[in-house]
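Model it.
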Amino acid sequence: GTEYDKIIGAQTIQWEGEEKTIAAMAPILQKSDRPTREKIQRLVWERQLQDREAINRLWTQFMDIRGQIGRNAGYDNYRGYIWQDKHRFDYTPEDCFTFHDAIEKTVVPAAVRIYEKKRDRLGVDTLRPWDVNAPVGDQPPLTPYDEISELDNTTAKIFHKVDPALGAYYATMQQEKLLDLDNRKGKAPGAYCTDFPVARRPFIFCNSVGTHDDVQTLLHEAGHAFHAFEVARNLTYLHQMEYPMEFAEVASMAMELLAAPYLAREEGGFYSPKDAARARIEHLENLIKFWPYMAVVDAFQHWVYENHAAASDPAACDAKWAEQWDRFMKGIDWSGLQAEKETGWHRKLHIHRVPFYYVEYGLAQLGAVQIWANALKDQAGAVASYRKALALGGTVKLPDLYAAAGAKFAFDSQ
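Modeled.
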């Protein structure tokens, strides 16, 4: 796993005479005209594909180890082991398949409408991958901050607006240097929140490069941090603090939505009222676009561990990923980009580093949007229920945690 991080963390490209990390290209990609966006995206893919064989070799090692773990634990495959290891006591693989079907039926058509609207506004014949996050017309990309300190301090103001106790938690993280937010060469990819149980403190790790995504990521990871603070404050034993991951992601995704009313500068945030509204629209559209992608990742992983021998061949994984991509990710034109499309699983950290940890995001997003719906009627009440549910840790079952937060745990199209 560390080797995978090293490979991804070392990927850089040359752009306008400078060496840039792949993450650092995101804001440049958003600001560029269409030919430049395509050039940048192709340079990024070209660099990533240089590591195709190295990641494939690692994959065969991952599969050998995971297969052995499953057999050692007495299961037919790794999924049987990991399902128990991840404490998935309140739903089954079959429930996940129901979820995939519901997303295909309900969400994919909505996502296609969003992509079609974007294609029409851009005035292009088809929406290519480098168009998905492109600005429309002369609309500049959202630029929330110039310095990391601005990201840190403005986000702190937002949390104080959401709830004074949550603001105090974040202030503690600032004071105790429990935040590593900037992107730099050689830094491991992604973002996460971990916690130190003896010290009863969380720690946030990000790769922030100046985009609105950085704001959303920090709001998200802070939701995890607040979860850690609440259980440390309210529960005695370590075992009680081991809450289900499906609800851990409710804590983070709901915080993105609960903080959204405060994105405007007049509320303590980053933007003009117009840009704050635009950020919220993009966020809500991204929620819809995310569920199909989540389904690709989860359906792919079910296939991998149900078909261990076949999935130990990276070429078979390429084919299965492309098949699931075509099933769920409709509305984007990938013609002429077969290698780039079928190696998408190489670039999804969870598949390599935290196998089977992804459906949690999709389930949690359902919980988060229900909390948001409650907040539209009663923001203070929704925040209070949210904090009450976080404080329960792992002392009640997953459906009961959702219920405490004012949400329902369900998988179907309805």
